[in-house]
Write a structure and sequence with these properties.
CATH class of the largest domain: Alpha Beta
Number of helices: 14
Largest sheet: 7 strands, parallel
Strand order of the largest sheet: 5-4-3-2-1-9-8
Strand content: 15-25%
Bound molecules: alpha-D-glucopyranose
Oligomer: single chain
């Protein structure tokens, strides 16, 4: 029985098994990887930018797939692409002010349109009325604001003539036989080379690239996985050209220990720090303001500033990064709804970024009280208590016995007094668990989105 099972597995995944072996060019140790990723685990907060032709229809970046729009018809967006108000300095300034530390922009999304002046296709911004490379000035502007630069690159391509029709292709013939017939004329070898040529451009002409977000694999029948992309070849190229660059897990090599740097939970909040083979791994959740990634005019599911602040805190409280997306308009602007969120984030971050940067999940023995999230900075030994619902006067926290030296509100550095025994008075029925620290809060909740108490430990 066992032998049958193993042979079935070998038959089904012969290549994936061999891909598990570490290729000779992978040399990095675990400690070296940690060091390479140190800035990223410190910085915690990145801005995602989804921008492309789909900003014109303004009804989802998958609009071509959703509406099965033929190439000739989709062309009208290419012909009218002209973001005349694009001001990359303004984007970068807004990102910095809102507390982001890095920016990851779509250089090419699934539609195949390229935002840089690539030599390998005419389906690019420099052939539109606008006529100028969009990536270079943004990369420069970000660096000028002290932000790191990352690129998103779509493995999927609905425009390239050699990307074979599959389940994720809007123009794939529905009938499997016809699809196969149509695919005879398509040669993935050519597409694989195209990706390599483009990556080479992106990683040589735009300075230091700190993160690469490759998107995405969907192996199986009528899908595509790491062999289809030659993910190993792509990764090798990245490691050669920019060895420091941090790469996501969407090239389909999660089953290897070396084919990715971090996992990417999308549009949901993990219940706890994600693990792979029982080990906690670096993670970056990508989230939107409103549901879609590209600019969507008529979407009415925008998250409030409060929800976004809580999302950032919760992510860091579980040891993760947040990549929060803005979808600029086809004029090249962040719209009012996005600006309002960014302003709210900058208001909060201005006073509270200390509870985010350099922070991670709190040590196990310290439990967050009800309605609170904890983050912890292991270098400064400071603990940050984020209070979602402001309680009346007393906040009990366990696991800190004899360890708390000083406590203060983060927004105004005003002292929070604390005690380890409940007060004895005529009408005091308050009880506390042995070893609890009791913080004495002001009755009035500080007027910030989420108040934070900084606990300085011995
Ligand atoms: C998904 C979607 C895509 C989006 C991405 C962001 O893979 O296909 O539209 O760019 O997630 O993580």
């Amino acid at each position: 029985m066992k032998t049958i099972l193993i042979s079935v597995l070998l038959l089904t995944f012969p290549l994936s098994l061999s891909a598990q072996e570490r290729p000779s060019w992978v040399k990095e140790t675990k400690a070296e990887k940690e060091k390479r990723m140190a800035w990223w685990t410190h910085d915690r907060f990145g801005m995602f930018i989804h921008w492309g032709l789909y900003s014109l229809p303004a009804r989802h970046e998958w609009v071509q797939w959703n509406e099965k729009i033929p190439a000739e018809e989709y062309r009208k967006y290419f012909d009218r692409f002209n973001p005349d108000l694009y001001d990359p300095q303004e984007w970068a300034r807004k990102a910095r002010e809102a507390g982001f530390k890095y920016v990851v922009i779509t250089t090419k999304h699934h539609e195949g349109f390229c935002l840089w002046d690539t030599k390998h296709t005419d389906y690019k911004v420099t052939r539109t009325i606008y006529g100028k490379d969009l990536i270079k000035p943004l990369a420069d502007a970000c660096r000028a604001e002290g932000l790191r630069v990352g690129f998103y690159y779509s493995l999927i391509d609905w425009h390239h003539p050699h990307f074979t029709f599959d389940s994720n292709h809007p123009l794939a013939p529905a009938d499997p036989e016809e699809r196969e017939k149509a695919n005879v004329k398509r040669d993935m070898n050519i597409y694989r080379q195209y990706m390599k040529d483009q990556l080479k451009e992106l990683l040589t002409h735009y300075g230091r690239i700190d993160e690469l977000f490759m998107d995405f694999s969907y192996p199986g029948e009528n899908g595509k996985g790491h062999e289809d992309w030659d993910s190993e070849g792509l990764l090798k190229l990245v490691r050669q050209l920019q060895p420091h660059c941090i790469v996501d897990n969407r090239m389909g090599m999660e089953h290897t220990g070396w084919g990715w740097d971090f996992v990417t939970p999308e549009q949901f909040m993990p219940q706890q720090w994600p693990t792979v083979n029982g080990e906690r791994v670096p993670w970056e959740t990508c989230q939107t303001f409103s549901g879609s990634w590209g600019y969507y005019r008529d979407e009415y599911s925008w998250k409030s500033v409060h929800q976004l602040v809580v999302m950032l805190i919760e992510t860091v409280s579980k040891g993760g990064n947040l990549l929060l997306n803005v979808g600029p308009t086809a004029r090249g602007l962040f719209d009012d709804r996005a600006n309002e969120r960014l302003e709210g984030l900058s208001r909060w971050m201005k006073l509270h970024s200390r509870s985010i940067y350099g922070c991670t999940q709190a040590p196990e023995e310290i439990r967050a009280p009800q309605n609170c999230f904890l983050t912890y900075n292991p270098d400064t030994k400071r603990l940050y208590l984020h209070v979602l619902e402001w309680p009346f006067r007393s906040l009990h926290i366990s696991g800190l016995k004899n360890r708390l030296e000083y406590a203060q509100l983060l927004n105004d550095a005003s002292e929070i007094r604390f005690r380890t025994q409940t007060e004895q008075g005529d009408h005091t029925t308050e009880t506390s668990k042995e070893g609890d620290v009791i913080l004495s809060l002001p009755v009035e909740r500080p007027d910030v989105d989420v108040p934070v108490i900084e606990l300085i430990l011995r």
